[in-house]
């Protein structure tokens, strides 16, 4: 008899992700996109790809940063609801097929002085981790330093260059063919790192120092020609930041990653936006992807597979009650949505939503005859109602013991909670002057 319809703002979610270049083409940039609340990480990557104008030759590696290090990476089919509003997400633009390359993760930590063995003045990491890729057979010291120099290029301070001097490893088309020279302040293209003079890799000629590390940023050994690396695992590096590095690179672009979502911003938005009843219906009938925890057993292939579920309306009743789900519940917060829903008073055509059809069926046209309003929030509130006297063709406002006449258009407000429609065709049932509404049903709907 009734439909509980979600508001579109409750089936979508706004998420902010900072996109980093894995090839040193640009500075990091945060993007805010709208994705299905019950969607998967692939939906988020698709929205980010459109927002940042991702090239066909590139792909995004989505991850979470916690305590200045990469806490985890997300697979395309992981559900978005596992990501909390307070999390900090990053997406690295990498070449398509980067899975076949060696992934390098770069963490950062301050040092007291720049020496062959610098003293780290704190265990806490700084900045945001950077990610780049190199071929698996290009793991010599010069190759690693060239790749890291390239990904750091957008952070170079302009004042460290003389007039006419190019940025550090600037305008690099690929990770191959780069050599460091002139104290790392410029680069040449068209040369192979395999032919670079080993002396150029000495600390006195390099603008920074790299150390092998683990995923927690614990220092191991300096990157040398004979540094061991396990094939198939990412190479984790720790970059020491002394005064020299801070003079060359601007670390502020790596600081203060934004949270996925700011609740205060959304609460203001929900009061300003407006939707119509049909968008609520479409949200109710939309395909919902099932996550890895809700695998569906296919009787044909005899395996559990990810699928989607969908609701459809088979038949429609004489009296149709529409419940607008204004109360949003999550693990961490509860909220009431004051979104204005523009609903038809006359000629609500539901014909296209009814799947069951027969030759004698008439169009499913409905007319509004009552509205229940809710004012307040979750902790307490007040109910009132608008109802139409059919014989008089006039609307009244029922507010406790107070009853007053209202114009028809005044029944459409952002407080509308339950909508009562009757079908207006030859088979309609007889209507009383005022159709009573059981107020207990209001609370049971939310329960």
TrEMBL record:
SUPFAM superfamilies: Cysteine proteinases (SSF54001)
GO BP term, example: protein deubiquitination
GO function terms (MF aspect): cysteine-type deubiquitinase activity
Residues annotated as domain USP: 1-424
Gene3D superfamilies associated with the record: Cysteine proteinases
Domain of life (superkingdom): Eukaryota
Matching InterPro entries: Papain-like_cys_pep_sf, Peptidase_C19_UCH, Ub_carboxyl-term_hydrolase, USP, USP_CS
One of the Pfam families matching this protein, by short name: UCH
Similarity comment: Belongs to the peptidase C19 family.
Protein name: USP domain-containing protein
Source organism of the structure: Aegilops tauschii subsp. strangulata (Goatgrass)
């Amino acid at each position: 008899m009734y439909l509980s319809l979600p508001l579109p703002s409750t089936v979508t979610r706004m998420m902010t992700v900072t996109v980093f270049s894995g090839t040193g083409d640009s500075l990091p940039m945060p993007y805010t996109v709208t994705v299905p609340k019950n969607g998967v990480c692939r939906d988020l990557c698709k929205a980010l790809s459109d927002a940042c104008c991702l090239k066909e030759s590139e792909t995004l590696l989505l991850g979470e940063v916690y305590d200045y290090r990469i806490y985890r990476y997300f697979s395309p089919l992981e559900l978005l609801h596992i990501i909390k509003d307070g999390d900090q997400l990053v997406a690295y633009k990498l070449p398509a097929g980067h899975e076949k390359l060696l992934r390098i993760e770069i963490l950062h930590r301050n040092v007291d002085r720049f020496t062959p063995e610098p003293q780290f003045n704190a265990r806490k990491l700084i900045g945001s981790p950077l990610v780049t890729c190199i071929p698996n057979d290009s793991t010599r010291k010069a190759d690693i330093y060239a790749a890291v120099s390239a990904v750091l290029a957008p952070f170079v301070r302009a004042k460290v260059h003389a007039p006419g001097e190019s940025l550090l490893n600037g305008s690099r088309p690929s990770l191959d063919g780069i050599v460091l020279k002139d104290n790392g302040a410029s680069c040449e293209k068209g040369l192979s790192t395999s032919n670079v003079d080993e002396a150029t890799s000495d600390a006195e000629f390099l603008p920074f120092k790299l150390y092998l590390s683990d995923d927690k940023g614990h220092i191991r050994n300096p990157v040398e020609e004979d540094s061991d690396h396990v094939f198939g695992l990412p190479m984790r590096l720790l970059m020491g930041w002394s005064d020299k590095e801070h003079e060359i690179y601007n670390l502020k672009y790596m600081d203060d990653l934004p949270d996925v979502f700011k609740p205060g911003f959304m609460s203001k938005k929900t009061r300003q936006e407006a939707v119509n009843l049909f968008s609520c219906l479409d949200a109710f009938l939309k395909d919902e992807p099932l996550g890895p925890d809700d695998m569906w057993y296919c009787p044909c292939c005899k395996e559990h597979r990810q699928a989607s579920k969908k609701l459809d309306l088979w038949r429609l009743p004489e009296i149709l009650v529409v419940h607008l789900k204004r109360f949003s519940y999550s693990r961490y917060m509860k909220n009431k949505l004051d979104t204005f829903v523009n609903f038809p008073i006359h000629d609500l055509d539901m014909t296209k939503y009814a799947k069951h059809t027969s030759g004698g069926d008439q169009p499913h046209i409905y007319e509004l005859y009552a509205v229940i309003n809710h004012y307040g929030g979750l902790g307490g509130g007040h109910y009132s109602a608008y109802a139409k006297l059919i014989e008089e063709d006039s609307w009244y406002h029922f507010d406790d013991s107070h009853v007053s006449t209202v114009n028809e258009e005044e029944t459409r407000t952002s407080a509308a909670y339950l909508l009562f429609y009757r079908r207006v065709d030859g088979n309609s049932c007889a209507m009383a002057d005022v159709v009573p509404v059981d107020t207990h049903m209001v609370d049971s709907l939310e329960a």
